[in-house]
Amino acid sequence: MEKENYSSKLFDDAVAEFSKLPGIGKRTATRLVLHLLKQEHINIEYFGQILITLAREIKHCKICHNISDIETCSICTDKTRDKTTICVVENIKDVIAIENTQQYKGLYHVLGGILSPMEGIGPSELNISSLESRILSDEIEEIILALSPTMEGDTTNFYLFKKFSKYNIRLTTLARGVSFGDELEYADEITLGRSIINRQIFDGKNI
After folding, report:
1. How far is Cα of residue 199 from the mean position of the Cα atoms in its chain?
2. Using CA atoms, how far apart are residues 176 and 207, in angstroms rounded to an integer?
């Protein structure tokens, strides 16, 4: 990205870095940096330290692959959660969106993407083997497939259905009519919550 000729290279570099964030253009980045410069030095330093600490210490849960401050996330260790149900999602944003509905009390499994042969993403690039290990080792009764209603999402759903249908578990999917997957974070919380409650059995044909 070409930089503007500001009077300060430090300011120029800061604007360039903010501009790399999704949804942040050069004008918005400039306003954000100018806003920071109006703050007390201690507040700016704290902001920077938070980012450094995030980069150095954030972890991915060894069980579900959600973000966590420790090896096992707070959802997986929460004794009040339903340990018999796992909601399979594409990414961490989906976990946040579903948690915001306050309608789901089970566990999660973050695949880290969906199958996309065009982009070279196959089963080995996703967290599928660890999901199967959970099915084998835990008392899982239901797997909820909460993936994008796209060709790639449906392909992933069907792959998981074929792979796990041999186990004595129930495979379900969110009720259709709600945007999820890439757009899950923007879905209305009430509608999304209802789609979880009204989920339907997935038989490999309802795609």
Report:
1. 20
2. 9
Please give the angle made by the CA atoms of 50, 54 and 57, to the nearest 5 degrees. Answer: 125
C-alpha 7/C-alpha 4 separation (Å) is 9
- Separation between Cα atoms, residue 59 and residue 110, nearest integer Å: 14
Q: Amino acid identity, residue 69?
A: D
Q: Say if residues 193 and 162 touch (Cβ distance below 8 Å).
A: no
In one letter, which amino acid is 55? A
Q: Per-residue DSSP letters for 55-74?
A: HHH-EE-TTT--EESSSS-H
Residues 90, 182 contacting (CB under 8 angstroms): yes
CB-based contacts of 91, cutoff 8 Å, min separation 6: 110, 111, 112, 113
User: What pLDDT, on the 0 to 100 scale, is given for residue 180?
Assistant: 47
pLDDT digits (tens, 9 = 90+) for 105-156: 999 999 999 999 888 899 999 999 999 999 998 799 999 999 888 889 899 9
Domain annotation for the chain: domains and CATH numbers: 9-57 (1.10.8.420), 63-201 (3.40.1360.10)
Measured CA angle at 18 (ends 148, 32), to 5 deg:
110
DSSP state for residue 117 in the 8-state scheme? G
